[in-house]
C-alpha cells in the first residue's frame, strides 16, 4: 500500500497546478478498493491546515473534502474513526486547528 502525503493531496483537491494535479490525479486513479492507497493521520492534519490557512476553504468545503477522503473506496485513512469523530465536532461548529 502506497502512502499519500500533503504534497499529493493538496494538488488533487485544489487543481491549482496543472502538472502536479495531473500527476496526483493519475496516482489516485490507479488505486482500487482491492489495492488502495493509504493516508496517514499527519497528512490529514496537514491537509486541513493548508486548505484552511492557505486556500481559505470554508468549514463546509473542508467537511466535504474530508468526507470524500473518508468514503473513497480506493483510499484507507489512518485512524479513520478518530478522523470521523473530529469531523463531526468540526462540522458542529468547533475549530479543529487554532
Question: Can you give me a brief rundown of this structure?
Answer:
With 98 residues, the protein is mainly alpha-helical.
Question: Can you describe what's shown?
Answer:
The protein is mainly α and 98 residues long. The chain has one domain (6-91). Helices cover 60% and strands 6% of the residues. The protein contains 5 helices and 2 strands, in the order ααβααβα. It has helices at 6-14, 18-29, 41-53, 59-71, 80-91; strands at 37-39, 75-77. Strands 1-2 form a two-stranded parallel sheet. Helix 1 (6-14) crosses helix 2, helix 1 crosses helix 3 (41-53) and helix 4 runs antiparallel to helix 5 (80-91). The longest helix is centred in the middle third of the chain and has 13 residues, at 41-53. The mean pLDDT is 92.
Q: Secondary-structure blueprint of this entry?
A:
Blueprint: H1 6-14, H2 18-29, E1 37-39, H3 41-53, H4 59-71, E2 75-77, H5 80-91
Parallel strand pairs: 1-2
Helix pairs in contact: 1-2, 1-3, 4-5
Amino acid at each position: 500500500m502506497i502512502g499519500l502525503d500533503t504534497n499529493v493531496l493538496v494538488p488533487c483537491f485544489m487543481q491549482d497546478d496543472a502538472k502536479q494535479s495531473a500527476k496526483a490525479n493519475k496516482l489516485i486513479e490507479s488505486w482500487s478498493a482491492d489495492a488502495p492507497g493509504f493516508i496517514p493521520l499527519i497528512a490529514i492534519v496537514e491537509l486541513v491546515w493548508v486548505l484552511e490557512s492557505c486556500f481559505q476553504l470554508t468549514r463546509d468545503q473542508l467537511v466535504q473534502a474530508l468526507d470524500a477522503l473518508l468514503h473513497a473506496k480506493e483510499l484507507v485513512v489512518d485512524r479513520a474513526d478518530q478522523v470521523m469523530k473530529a469531523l463531526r465536532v468540526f462540522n458542529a461548529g468547533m475549530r479543529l486547528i487554532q
